[in-house]
Amino acid sequence: MTLSRNFFVDRGALYLVYMETMKNPPSDVYEGYIQALTDISRAITSDLYIEDLLKLIVMVTAKVISVEICSLWLINEEEKPPRIRLKATQSISPEYVKDRALNLDEGVVGYVAGRKKPLVLKNVLKSRRFKEREMARTLGLVSMVGVPLQTKDEKVIGVLNCFTLEAREFSDTDVNLLTAVANQAAVAILNTELMVKTRVIQEELAARKKIEMAKEILMHQRRITGEKAYAWMRRQSMDSRKSLLEVAEAIMLSHEILNIQP
């Protein structure tokens, strides 16, 4: 798949984005910020599977913003009504990594996704919006910052959440940093999903082509119609418990062997 130059992000471009959002940042914050965006930018043009990409995003984010837990939630629009699900975290706590899904009007995740803006909580247990209080007590979660994963057309595809185990005042720099990382992550996620869909389509087209070729071989060899040839292949597929593609490939291989000149 050929990607446009818009998908490539160099350090100069990252610097301009950074300076637009930060005012006299400390050098270590700047380097961490640039490294985070660079790592995610590289992922845009990589062959990472979506699960590996999401894991990379939460690990990079947790490191650069210095938080104990970072989690990434994605909206599943195929569900009716749409829900937002936890898809990745670097936390190893069974209490946190369990399968979790929320409606788009539930909890802090739904709030961030629905209002398309960041949310900062100094103490999650004192917030009416935070619903998972028992989990927070068990894990010792205190402060939180959440930002939407937003594409260039301002569509929200998910939420990036960060938690600390001690009270913390997340600064504007922290929020801006996290927002930029989240938006870059949104591009990487959409690009990866696009590549996966493209690969699936290409594989499907290649399979159909092989099935058509095998059908034509049967039509020629047995002097039957295309409909009967296809029905024969389907029976072979069911009887042998092989896919239609495997049957087609076997027919093509047999035809190729029989036509080898001695």
Characterization of this structure:
By secondary structure, this protein is of the alpha+beta class. It folds into two domains: 5-197, Beta-Lactamase (2-Layer Sandwich); 207-258, Winged helix-like DNA-binding domain superfamily/Winged helix DNA-binding domain (Arc Repressor Mutant, subunit A, Orthogonal Bundle). The protein has nine helices and six strands. It has helices spanning 11-21, 27-44, 50-65, 94-97, 107-115, 133-139, 172-222, 226-240, 244-258, and strands at residues 69-76, 83-89, 101-103, 119-121, 144-150, 156-163. Strands 3-2-1-6-5-4 form a six-stranded antiparallel beta sheet, with helices on both faces. A hairpin with a 5-residue loop joins strand 5 (144-150) and strand 6 (156-163). Helix 1 crosses helix 2 (27-44), helix 2 packs antiparallel against helix 3 (50-65) and helix 8 (226-240) crosses helix 9 (244-258). It is elongated and about 80 Å long. It starts with 10 loop residues before the first helix and ends with a helix. Mean pLDDT is 79; it is low at 1-23.
